[in-house]
Amino acid sequence: MVRGDRPSPEELAAAEGATIPDVLSPGMRVLFCGINPGLWSGATGHHFARPGNRFWPALHSSGFTPRLLRPDEQDELAEYGLGITNLVARASARAAELTDEELREGGRALERTVQRYRPAWVAVVGITAYRTAFGVRAATVGSQQRSIGDARVWVLPNPSGLNAHWTAATLAEEFARLRRAVEAHDG
């Protein structure tokens, strides 16, 4: 799909169950872990691709990237020590379509990814998915007590435009809190 093209309804329907490649490199500062790709991401092959998703603006506004990246520029994240994966690889119209077992298996898969790539931090994007994947019912947004391997864990709000509990500004501030913690840890 050419940059700027919008997937057709047929392409979106065909993206159900599609997978997209992770953006990973050894020794990342932060590995962002989404819940699962939406249909727009499945159709385009890019993470957080649906217009209205606030991941890329929050990443930039928080200071993680010097400019606003487009989803089709996701491979540039490695230049900033960042990466992206998902708890569940298959694309769906809504995260609510995932089973608890899929999320728990996704947590185990994330642990294996962290072992292999050794990021300093893992930022799970979605509190409910994190709680289910790791069995931590009382988890709140922010720094977590648990680690994954040697990686510190932070939970961020879901940047989907459907998550009305978080504005673009409060979402960016939460991403900035993580960035400040990462920088303090890099020290």
From TrEMBL:
Keyword Hydrolase: yes
InterPro entries: MUG/TDG (IPR015637), Uracil-DNA_glycosylase-like (IPR005122), Uracil-DNA_glycosylase-like_sf (IPR036895)
Keywords, sorted A to Z: DNA damage, DNA repair, Glycosidase, Hydrolase
Broad enzyme group: hydrolase
Annotated EC: 3.2.2.28
GO molecular function, one term: hydrolase activity, acting on glycosyl bonds
The organism's place on the tree of life at top rank: Bacteria
Domain Uracil-DNA glycosylase-like: 21-182
Database matches in PANTHER family: G/T AND G/U MISMATCH-SPECIFIC DNA GLYCOSYLASE (PTHR12159), G_T MISMATCH-SPECIFIC THYMINE DNA GLYCOSYLASE (PTHR12159:SF9)
Protein name (record): G/U mismatch-specific DNA glycosylase
Source organism per UniProt: Saccharopolyspora rosea
Gene name tied to this protein: mug
